[in-house]
Amino acid sequence: MNPYAERNFVQALVPLLIARLPDPFSPSEAKMKHVAEVAGRWAELLVDLRADPEWEYFLLDKDGPAWNQEAD
């Protein structure tokens, strides 16, 4: 990965997150803040995956809540 991989990842991820909002064409400020926070967490995970050997076999939990759903 090149030094800008995290930025490229976030640039690709943010439109996908916005598209998943209930009203993607006019999201509220609070919803956009949530999108920014989630994108930041994903970028941190990407950095961890690159830098930490114990994350070598990391798998996302497909059965967990979506990023825009409340956890039980």
Protein architecture, described:
The chain has about 70 residues and is mainly α. It has one domain. It is built from two helices and no strands. It has helices at about 5-20, 30-50. Helix 1 (about 5-20) runs antiparallel to helix 2. The protein starts with a helix and ends in a 21-residue tail after the last helix. The relative contact order is 0.16.
Please outline what is shown here.
It is built from two helices and no strands. By secondary structure, the chain is an all-alpha fold.
End-to-end Cα distance = 35 Å
Number of domains: 1
In total, the number of strands is 0
Helix share bin: 40-55%
Radius of gyration from the CA trace?
14 Å
> How much of the polypeptide forms β-strand, as a percent range?
under 5%
- List low-pLDDT spans: none
Order of helices and strands: HH
> What does the average pLDDT come to?
74
Largest sheet geometry:
none
SS class:
mainly alpha
User: Given the C-alpha coordinates, what overall shape results?
Assistant: elongated
Query: What is the count of DSSP helices, taking H or I runs of 4+ residues?
Result: 2
